[in-house]
Amino acid sequence: MSAEPQKHEPETRPIFKFLAGFFGVLFLITGCFTVVFAFQSTGSVLWRWIGESSLFLLLGAAFTHAAFTGRWGLLK
User: What is the DSSP code (8-state) at residue 2?
Assistant: First the structure.
């Protein structure tokens, strides 16, 4: 036995992984719908749809990554 304390990796609960995966898929689907609306719209509204869809897609990718790895990509 070692006298040094062992470092344990924090374990993420399965419910949090499920919620992160659920919200990730939800945001990815919403992002895809906003991309479709962006390509159908014209004029100054186009940039707003592109901005919204990119935010939805990035947030969905972050949630999906967190669901599979158990931790947020930007937090180390």
Answer: -
Comparing CA positions, the residue from 49, 51, 59 lying closest to residue 25 is: 59
For the question of whether the overall pTM of this predicted structure is more than 0.70, the answer is no
Compute how many other C-beta atoms are within 10 angstroms of the C-beta atom of residue 54.
14
What residue spans of 1-76 are helical by DSSP H? 14-40, 45-69
pLDDT tens per residue across span 44-56? 777 777 788 888 8
Q: CA-CA distance, 64 to 68, in Å (whole number)?
A: 6
What is the spatial distance between Cα 74 and Cα 62, in angstroms, rounded to a whole number? Answer: 9
Domains of the chain, by residue range, sit at: 14-69
